[in-house]
Hints:
This protein has ten helices and 18 strands.
Amino acid sequence: MNRNSDLNNKERKKKRNIHKKVMAAAAVAGASFILAAAVLGAETEQYTGTDFAMDTVVSETLYTSGKDLNPEIGDMLRETEEKYLSWTEKGSETYKINQAKGKTVQVSDTLAGYLEKALKLAEDSGGAFDPTMGKVIRLWDIGGENPHVPDQKELDSLLEETGYENLILEGNEVTLKGGAALDLGAAGKGIGCDIVMDFLKDQKEVCGMILNLGGSSVMAYGEKPDQTPWRVALRDPREEESGYLGVITLKGGEFLSTSGDYEKYFMEDGKRYHHILDPETGYPVWNGLTSVTVICENGLLADGLSTACFVLGAEDALPLLEKYNAEAAFVDEEHNIYLTDGMKSRFELMKNTYTIRDSFD
Length: 361
Ligand code: ADP
Ligand code: MG
């Protein structure tokens, strides 16, 4: 078999897998791919869709007097992953940086823009958000095929080579030193939300949209035709997907992101090994938090901040949130909910097994 047909086979297999995942996603969401178009008011129609991109289920509700843009939006998200963010896709810029073995790589303005924001957040969070943890993440393989507690020596040697100070950005030139590996997974879905928001700003016929990537990154654009606020359900970290502990309202132009210890994890000896890692120890963060939700005016930052705030814990996260003009809800194992001042008026509790606490201490 020559290389091309081998590639084609791989491509076909991948497409089949994606197709399977999309069908599964549709079943999970209980949604139909046939877009529901209901006439609302003069000529604004509602289009809902379920798709699969960025390794997750995408749910879209679009209000427009023009055509349905949901298929185009799915393609845009997949393209962003392939071109910039994927660590497995050979053509992606992240892949190229990781293969460069310390050599300087020229990247697009787009990726340079993401890296600039990510590096600033890494610095501002004291390294709690660390975009160079690729190898440590792969070693644990949480959510992958072989999740396991790694050998301490192996973990230590990878940690020595990891750290955002190894990632150097000068204009469009990127140098990744040592054995660190770039992984923007903690901000990827937020980046997807940013791209869609930018696209919508040029679509004059669009009245509003809510886009939800895997339940953890949400974008709200414009308004609903009836002008009621956008509402996002907050998951109960200790219940199956349908268990909600509250609702958060969003304004058009805002992004929401949740990081939780329930998204990807495995249990061993009664311990929950989840996917949010402390860059200092290389271990899952066990600080009593079960989820952190952040609202701000940029998707990448909302996503990156929710990860960083999970690592930092509620008290230490407050100055960071203030700096980014962001609001947050922290949920802990004891069923307490801590809200920043700006979150209080947006949060509606739906479960009496949880308690909203007045202060952070
Ligand atoms: P999700 O991807 O479920 O929305 P997050 O945005 O919190 O969740 O991202 C978690 C992912 O980010 C992990 O699966 C891992 O790939 C990566 N990651 C884990 N810990 C960190 C960290 N401290 N800094 C940056 N990335 C991290
Ligand atoms: Mg995140």
